Amino acid sequence: MGKSVPTHFQCDDDVAVLEIDHPPVNALSHEVRTTLAAGLDRAAQDPAVKAVVISGAGGSFPAGADINEIASGASFTPPILLDVLAQIEAFAKPIVAAIEGVALGGGFELALTCHARLAAPQARVGLPEVKLGLIPGAGGTQRFTRLAGPQAALQAITTGEALPAERALALGLIDALAADTRAAAIAHARRLASEGMPVLASQREDKIAQVDPTLFESWRTANAHRYRGQLAPWRIVDAIEAACTRTPRAAFELERQYYLECRDSPQREALMHVFHAERAARKIPGIGADVTPLPIRRAAIVGAGTMGAGIAMCFASAGLPVILLDVSDAALARGVAHIRELYAQAVARGRVTREQAEAALERIGTSVDYGSLGDVDIAIEAVFEDPVLKREVFERLDRSTPSHAILASNTSTLDIDRLAAATRRPQQVVGTHFFSPAHVMKLMENVRGERSSPQALATVMALARQLGKIAVLAGNCDGFIGNRMLQYYGAQAERLLEEGATPEQVDAVIERFGFAMGPLAMRDLAGNDVGWAIRRNRTLPPDERWSPILERMVAEGRLGRKSGHGFYRYEGGKRRHSPETLALIESVSRELGIERRVVGDEEILARLLHPLVNEGAKILAEGIALRSGDIDVVYIHGYGFPAYKGGPMYWAEREGLDAVIATLERLAPTHGRRWRPAERLIEAARAGSWSECGAAAALTSN
Ligand code: 3H9
Would you state the pLDDT for residue 613? Predict the structure, then answer.
């Protein structure tokens, strides 16, 4: 077969090797399915072929069905994946999968259908369909459960996690590890041809023979909160239960039915939008492959508070040495104690091994002396949100770090250009805004200053990947993308309280919508004093005002979780109603002459979400965000917007941009000029979508 054919047929003596060669990730497109099926036919018919190996070119087994074909419907064009897998099941000669890199989704389903699987030690396998709003649709839930048992299947398939090869081996999903995977797979296939075929995964009964009948109900109860509002995780549990309780035929059919149900759901569409948006966000116009990111080998973090400590952990966990710098040994000791505690929790939860945690801790050095930063490639400032203090830190970093080093600020709102002006290297100054808790939250909002160089930007975008984060590049303005939008959302939450809603009601509406946390619970988590300090630096249009509630809360010492009392009382980490806070809110309403009323849930939702969208449109028009999808990624990974609703801008598109405009117009007379629909929103409504209303502007700094 020629080079352009996505499945190569090669022979190693009496073993046929079918190598899938379809860059970038060997996805199982129609061409791949067709040529793989043809290769199997040829191997079946050739009497000289005694066994078959399926492998992937470029060091990777297929990473799944082709996502774009799932969206377009082309995945239903025969031969569909199920046809190819049926061909494998009925094959009279042994077929072995050689997994050198990742085998994911439909790719792993292909491997699970083979008679045996060999993997490289660094390989990773899994069924990540849930992250796309799907369930595995080609027998994945069934074969995985039969090979590894329902408990392991529930854990792996409902989270979509990729398992390291060693773990997959221990679970029985892989038969052996081999560094030279392809050669070992050929030898294994040959052995099976002479010794006899093993039982196929679909016929294995041992791991599903004696399943605790309460397992599935307990799993559903334990995960009800995590799965709320979603379709795919519930269906995955149903399919795994079916694997244990129904006949194989009925269970495979149910899985297919659930797959089709999920495939047709708006959640699948939204999650695929997020998948593509995350990847598009990495692409920065004007910064091509010719711009080489600076290699980051060593970092410094200034400020050992909660954020600084969390950021240091991100580096240490990614294998990078990091120096944590603060003004006193006491501050450093507190920071390190915090880090130790977080690693201990991670070990206790099984997220990392004790050895990994210890190795990471060893990568964290401490210092009170800027003189110790002579060999870092990047320094990230994470001190208190005070412009004077931050400038001072930048001046000192400029004097003490090597001339090639990038200087970054973790500020969530302040002007990057003013910080850059404090240095002799403004082209190497950028923002790297991490989200709290920094070692958990996936988002890194990188900020482009007026003079940030392409290399500095390429470096922090690449750094995000090195740290396992998802990066979005924002222009420089007060609050960048995320906090600029959030301030209006937060402000509305308090206005709703003044008018008659309770913190519980506001949070419940937003949490029912799917956010991880409501706005008032989030304020309590971040600290009401922090929210108030940020607000004091901001100005509002003349026809708007801040609610006095937040200031009062701070004056009365109700700082949120950290003081045990904020919008809620906290008992053993749980939030409880606070009669005192309700009394404070009611007294504010009285003082403002507002007659408290019953505020409907629908109104709460409209008043919280619409300002996000309208401000997002302005951010797009000003070039602070490159694409509407970037804003979605920021809100999903930084602020807990439900990924299965696609982010605020996608949500608005699905609601109908005209309907969003109508709501804004209805609310504008009561709530101020900012509620008037943004120009960009009106243009998008005319065009029918955000992406079709003009090319993304270059990112600006204003
Ligand atoms: C499935 O299998 C359902 C079955 O059960 C159904 C059976 C009936 N298809 O991420 P990267 C593109 S659902 C098409 O930047 P990395 C991606 O868009 C699937 N395209 O690379 C990007 O394009 P561009 C289950 C795909 O090295 C380029 O490849 N599988 C697919 O950081 C590079 O990707 C998954 O969910 C695909 N399946 O990471 C796995 N995958 O250059 C999804 C990627 O134009 N994929 N592309 O932006 C991944 O997790 C990562 O891509 C992977 C590589 C880890 C493989």
Answer: 97
Residues lining ligand 1, Cβ inside 6 A: 24-25, 27, 63-68, 81, 102, 104-106, 109, 128-129, 132, 134, 136-138, 140, 279
The predicted-structure confidence for 400-426, as pLDDT tens digits, reads as follows 999 999 999 999 888 999 999 999 999
Q: Taking a C-beta distance cutoff of 8 angstroms, is the pair 446, 473 a contact?
A: yes
Q: Ligand 1 centroid to 380 CA: how many Å?
A: 32
- Residue 133 CB-half CA count within 13 A: 26
The model's pTM is 0.95
Tell me if the bond preceding 24 is cis, omega within 30° of 0.
yes
pLDDT at 28: 98
Helix axes 248-263 and 140-148, enclosed angle (nearest 10): 130
Instruction: Answer whether 181's CB lies under 8 Å from 160's CB.
Output: no
Based on the fold, state whether residues 448 and 315 are members of the same structural domain. Answer: yes
pLDDT value at residue 702: 44
Measured in Å, residue 260 CA sits from the centre of ligand 1 at 20
For ligand 1, atom 27: residue with the closest CA: 25
Find the CATH number of the domain harbouring 362.
3.40.50.720
Kindly report, residue by residue over 200-256, the tens digit of the pLDDT.
999 999 999 989 989 999 999 999 999 999 999 999 999 999 999 999 999 999 999
Question: Ligand 1: which of 22, 25, 31 to mutate, judged by most atoms within 8 Å of the beta carbon?
Answer: 25
Q: How far is the CA of 139 from the centre of ligand 1 (A)?
A: 19
Residues 213 and 354 in one domain: no
Domain range enclosing 544? 483-687
Active centre residues (catalytic) = 109, 129
Question: Is the residue at 528 inside a domain?
Answer: yes
CATH number for the domain harbouring residue 561: 1.10.1040.50
The stretches of 281-321 forming alpha helices (DSSP H) are 306-317
